[in-house]
Amino acid sequence: MPKNSVVFSEERCKGCELCVTACPKQIIRMGEHINTKGFHPATIVDPEKCIGCAFCARMCPDMVIEIHRE
């Protein structure tokens, strides 16, 4: 189990991709599915590599990302 976890509120994500560019580990991608707003929401593809830096959460203009550190 990863020490850190990233939780995206996918239904609130507007697909701006700012979190993708902010992630130093490059483990955030845009999902292939579409949320109810019509956007491809961000998702984490390799949670074990997350270092819990919260850069993604700080960059998100809609505050849809939560970082949980252990």
Explain this structure to me?
The chain has 70 residues and is α+β, with helices and mostly antiparallel strands. It contains 2 helices and 4 strands; from the N terminus they run βαββαβ. It has helices spanning 18-22, 55-59, and strands at 4-8, 28-30, 42-44, 65-69. A two-stranded antiparallel sheet has the order 1-4. It is globular, with a radius of gyration of 11 Å. The termini are close together. The mean pLDDT is 93.
Write a brief caption for the model:
The chain is α+β, with helices and mostly antiparallel strands. 14% of the residues lie in helices and 23% in strands. The radius of gyration is 11 Å and the shape is globular.
Order of helices and strands: EHEEHE
Radius of gyration from the alpha-carbon trace, in angstroms: 11 Å
Q: Mean of residue pLDDT?
A: 93
Category from helices, strands and their pairing: alpha+beta
The rough form would be described as: globular
What is the strand content? 15-25%
The overall strand count is 4
Question: pLDDT below 50 for ≥5 consecutive residues: which ranges?
Answer: none
Q: What's the main sheet like?
A: 2 strands, antiparallel
Distance between the termini: 11 Å
Question: Helical amount among residues, as a percent range?
Answer: 10-25%
Strand sequence of the main sheet, in spatial order? 1-4
How many DSSP H or I helices?
2
